[in-house]
Amino acid sequence: MEVDRLEAIPWSGAEVVWRPLRAVLRVRAFGCAVFTAEEVGQDVVEPHRESEDGRGQQEVYVVLRGRVRFRLDGDEVDAGAGTFVCVDPPVHRQAVALEARTAVAVFGGEPVFAPSGHEYLMRVRWAVAEGDVEAATAIAEEGLADVAPGSPGIMYALALAAAARQDDDAARAHLAEALAAEPALRGELDRDAQLARLSDD
Asked: Which of 13, 93, 157, 189 sees the fewest Cβ atoms within 10 Å?
């Protein structure tokens, strides 16, 4: 759906023009809309704080075209097309168009999404391939704090980071836990020779 083909509806009590993307796409996983400003200086995100004036959602704004100045709890961020800005519920936010015909998409929902351990696994694998062992370890540990305890993907990521640090004992223990919980992960060993070696010990 193209932005300019969406209905353009004045947002109640503000100068913002709302385009109801969620309803058109029939999205139920999260809220989404597009806000547009035809003139420089026009609000494209009305001043509000989600924790008080909204539904308590975490929001991600994506500048689709034009330029915007976000005001976030008093800080200013200038953002051009292709920029993502994430705003937590308590942060007061407003955005003003710096160019005519600016369009900003917003995606929002309760901050309850549970990321997959495999998201971290892929990031750890990339850091290891780039030779950044410190980053691989930090990403794996971030995943351990962010994903449900015992996630097979996180255990595998921790094993990969440990192997990159040459901590074979830790790598072997994490790998055994990962494979016990999700035997299909054994197929990943074709990509990770350092772990394949440990699994065959």
From this structure: 13
